[in-house]
Design goal:
homodimer; about 120 residues; alpha+beta; Arc Repressor Mutant, subunit A; three-stranded antiparallel β-sheet; 5 helices; 3 strands; elongated; DNA-binding; WH_DNA-bd_sf (chains A, B); DNA-binding transcription factor activity (chains A, B); DNA-binding (chains A, B)
DNA sequence: CTAATTGAAAACCTTTTGGTTAAATATTGG
DNA sequence: CCAATATTTAACCAAAAGGTTTTCAATTAG
């Protein structure tokens, strides 16, 4: 589906960068669904939703089981693991930075702004 | 910078969906850098790299400190937190699915394919 | 067999993305 | 003042994204 790790990350992050696709994934977290079922909540044509599903499929996040004329889609969350791992490297940074914010708010509450 | 949570996620995931931008963030994890320094490793014009930095900036992942003619960029990892949280909801699924794969491989090793 | 349903494919359109080169702006150093 | 440096802006381009409508293909139901 995707060549190297970097392309896999590209595809996963790109797939997640759209609210419709994230909503489809949320829906699939509650169980499989056909293309029509998945498309129903959106104010867009079935064709458009179907394209979103294909983007998810190409990123490896959705598997499709064709039975007769209905295509049932299943969540495959595994490719998200790589994205999570990538983000985890930065967790230390945002923790530090959130701590910094906390300290700043604390300082403001005590009337100490840290300024000179 | 970004309106609601969904748009924030859009911007963050979109920003991360490009290998050049991920490399810039990795570089910034080792410490701040000027636009030129950040652009140097890439086989693209300074202007192109500068645009990537702007994408990161608009996603809130980079802050810029202008001193004279040099712009020093700093990592701000905090917006990644939302992306991590979003992914975390799916962690249970990929764990389950990786377990499934493990079980399958285990079964193959013992000569039990699970088929009937 | 025929009609309805499910979904993809094709053709098209507009906006965004990722890149280019050339020009403008601001700052620094001699 | 003048030249070099750091960076952005402007104008442009090709390709990708995200949408549309129309058409086609396969399957199911009556």
């Amino acid at each position: 589906m995707v060549n190297n790790d970097s392309e896999q990350l590209d595809a996963v992050f790109r797939a997640l960068a759209d609210p419709t696709r994230r909503a489809i994934l949320r829906s699939l977290a509650d169980g499989p669904g056909t293309v029509s079922e998945l498309a129903a909540p959106f104010e867009m044509s079935l064709v458009a939703a179907s394209k979103h599903i294909r983007v998810l499929e190409r990123a490896g996040l959705v598997r499709r089981e064709v039975r007769g004329r209905t295509h049932t889609c299943h969540l495959d969350a595994r490719p998200m693991h790589g994205g999570m791992e990538w983000l985890r490297h930065y967790e230390q940074f945002w923790n530090r930075q959130l701590d910094g914010l906390e300290a700043l708010l604390e300082a403001e509450n005590t009337g100490n702004t840290g300024e000179q």
